[in-house]
Amino acid sequence: MFKKFCIAVLVIFGISTVFCAASGAGEHGGKSGNWEKKIKWAKVPAVVQAAIEKHTVGGKITEIVKKSEDGKIVYEFEVQKDGKELDLRVASDGTYLGEEDAEGNITGSEAGAQADKTWIDKFEVTNAQFATFLNAKNADRFDEQMEIEPGPDGTYGAEAGRERFPVRYVDWHGAAGFCRWAGKRLPTEAEWEKAARGTDGRPFPWGDAIDGSRANFLSSGDPYDEGTTPVGFYDGKNPGTQDSPSPYGVYDLAGNVGEWVADWYAPDAYQTGPSRNPTGPAAGQARSGRGASWQHPPELLRSTMRYSGRPDARYDYVGFRCARDGGQMARLFQQRFS
């Protein structure tokens, strides 16, 4: 989504995407009570050792710092891996808090937020569905780059053969407008992540590992390798695919297109927001996105990855899906998760 991803590979959504946490300012500096000190491996709790070993395969730990950040203990590991220097952060309970690069960008945190019962679309919104929306007096949301065409009578229709492909080149306002028109709304980041990870914190919607039979990503080898796949393509019925829904039966939460979500973007949203049903900051300059896309390498498809983009920007690798609260009625079909 977005055109640059924090850890050094891409720019996502046209804005540099960061997931930053406040760091201690020294043992006697910064906010009251914040401190940090270097420690040895033997002083690291076993639960933290287990978490960091999982994320440093093939790397070398060169320094360990124990920090207190606003009363919470964090262990920071300086690691040399694949020719890069990273700081990997782990909470005292073993929760992996992400990788910080030389510019202070952090991503990949496994410290998610809790979301209550919600309904979310089983598939991303398609070109055919968005054309119906355009025809309902919403033509100002049309973009010539979409796989949608205006007909001689002035009505819109999906390009032939592209009806069930996810709509792209939709800005955040168009995505939110479609969901309102359909009697729904964009999901929050927390709702989207719960739909992807379930309750067991899996790294990918279907489980622990990724390959080309599960999702559409850069060089994944699918029949549509230079673009998107039809929604729900990875269902085990199409040749070369395995059935790859999330724990709640939701498809394409990793790859195909990245997805706009409701929240304004904040780098430290998971650190500073409420732990249950967060909705992001009240205002901002960028909106959040999730899911990565057909243009991104597999490591960026992890369900914890966060992105941001200007709400008025349109991209060829960004789409969306909708959600709704439990009691509302909606025109289009949803998938329940609880």
Number of domains: 2
Note the overall shape: globular
Q: Find the CATH superfamily of the largest domain.
A: paralog of FGE (formylglycine-generating enzyme)
The level 1 CATH classification of the largest domain is Alpha Beta
Query: Topology as H/E string?
Result: EEEHEEEEEEHEEHHEHEEEEE
**Secondary structure tally, helices:** 5
Report the sheet-strand fraction: 15-25%
- The low-pLDDT segments are 1-32, 327-338
CATH topology of the largest domain: paralog of FGE (formylglycine-generating enzyme)
Strand-pairing-aware structural class: alpha+beta
- DSSP summary, beta strand count: 17
Kindly, what is the distance between the CA atoms of the first and last residues, rounded to a whole number of angstroms? 27 Å
CATH architecture field of the largest domain: Alpha-Beta Complex
Protein model, in words:
The chain contains 5 helices and 17 strands. With 338 residues, the protein is of the alpha+beta class. The protein folds into 2 domains: 21-104, Nuclear Transport Factor 2, Chain: A (Roll), CATH 3.10.450.360; 112-338, paralog of FGE (formylglycine-generating enzyme) (Alpha-Beta Complex), CATH 3.90.1580.10. The strands form 5 sheets. Strands 3-4-5-6-7-8 form a 6-stranded antiparallel sheet. The radius of gyration is 21 Å and the shape is globular. The two termini are 27 Å apart. The model is unreliable at 1-32 and 327-338 (pLDDT under 50).
